Amino acid sequence: MRLFMGVAVALVLVAGCSGHETSLDECSDGVDNDGDGRIDCDDLACLVHEFCASVGMDAGPDLDDASVDAGPDEAGLDAGLDGGADAGQDAGGDAGIDAGPICAMELILTETGIRPRSMDWADVDGDGDDDLAAAYDNAPAQVYRNDGLALVATWTESPQGLCGGVAWGDLEGDGAPDLSVMHCDGTGGGYSGFFHVFRNAGTAPSSTPSFTSATGLWSASMLWADFDGDTHQDLLLGTLANIGPESRIYRGTGATLVASPWWSDATRLRIIAARAVDVDGDTDLDLVVASVRPRSGTGPEGVHVLYQGTGG
After folding, report:
1. Which helix (H) or strand (E) holds 144?
2. What is the helix, strand, coil percentage profile of the chain, to 5?
3. What single-letter DSSP state applies at residue 205?
4. To which H or E segment does residue 196 belong?
5. 3-class DSSP string for 79-100
């Protein structure tokens, strides 16, 4: 699995900072020197430079003059609103914002031979940075903690299975994302597909699942949403219904999931993706799914089907 990261000088202005330092030598690592409550522009540029340098990437030109050019420029903006382009941003490369990337890097998070299958982002530890959950075809799911600059594996699923999928949802309604992990099969074969839910333990999912489904489900997709309108999140499990049980919704109680499905798909679609939206504006969530035809036999292929929600 690869993560591509890019940073451009334009992000310095988007961040809402004001420049006071004039060179990298005067950088002070993200300090608000003028007391305006914002990191000074060149300090922020310096942090980017240090980050790029730490990973061996080119920090790019013009870090020390990433500012708006106040001089005349034919391709610039009309600052006086008089119809003339007389005081705009410099479109050139030596004074103004460099439109190109400062650095771009690729993080390879997995070992050779591990096949990624599913990803989802959420701030599991509450530090303001979204963390990454990833599932694999042939390895246990993992959570990678994000500290703002790097992703570090901090949690590994147990028990595990094959052809996995992950989805964050707030099972308990406490604002802390819990993690559901599904598998189309167990590690020992036998087509014992299942899913389980791991509560949020503060900085990572718990080490053991708080809910585990029955086996034999041939799981293909998951979606958290309040389908019954009781303010508790429920879980849709999409399945390969041509070779196993139909897709179903498990009702959330605010503490756990009810083991018996609240809703089952009588049409037995192979639901590989789903979204919950209020299509008709009645405040009840409706369900849109993507289905594929089985490799053998008949059935709808590439069909998006709308299931109209009626609340509880």
Report:
1. strand 142-146
2. 10, 35, 60
3. B
4. strand 194-198
5. CCCCCCCCCCCCCCCCCCCCCC
Spans of all domains in the chain: 2-105, 115-307
Residues β-bridged to residue 7 = 103
Count of residues for the chain? 312
Architecture of domain 115-307: 7 Propeller (2.130)
- Can you say how many angstroms the Cα of residue 68 is from the centroid of all Cα atoms in its chain? 33
Question: Would you write out the chain's pLDDT as a tens digit for each of its 312 residues?
Answer: 655 444 332 222 233 333 443 343 444 445 566 566 555 544 445 555 555 555 455 444 433 333 333 334 434 444 444 555 444 444 444 444 343 444 444 556 666 778 889 999 999 999 999 999 999 988 999 999 998 888 899 999 987 888 899 999 999 999 999 999 999 887 766 667 899 999 998 889 999 999 999 988 989 999 999 999 999 999 999 998 888 899 999 999 999 999 999 999 988 889 999 999 998 888 889 999 988 866 555 655 666 777 777 766
Q: What is the pTM of this model?
A: 0.67
Per DSSP, the three-state class of 181 is strand
Report helix, strand or coil for 47.
helix
